[in-house]
Amino acid sequence: MKHFRHLRGYTQEKLAELTDTSVTYISQLELGHHTPSFAKLEALSKALDVEPFEFYVKRQFKPLPPRVDMK
Known about the structure:
CATH topology: 434 Repressor (Amino-terminal Domain)
Number of helices: 4
Helix content: 40-55%
Strand content: under 5%
Radius of gyration: 11 Å
CATH class: Mainly Alpha
Structural class: mainly alpha
CATH architecture: Orthogonal Bundle
Number of domains: 1
């Protein structure tokens, strides 16, 4: 999810706003501490313009920088 968020140029705050969730929830999802409900999965996929299954497909993404500057 973090990869797709980064591709869209969204901060965790922006994604939380678009999906009516908290920043803490987005962070916990990205860390793998929570699994989204089907409704949240649909909202996340819509906000990030990806199909829901794409969150679960194992791929080789380029590593993201440790801190993304969203200026």
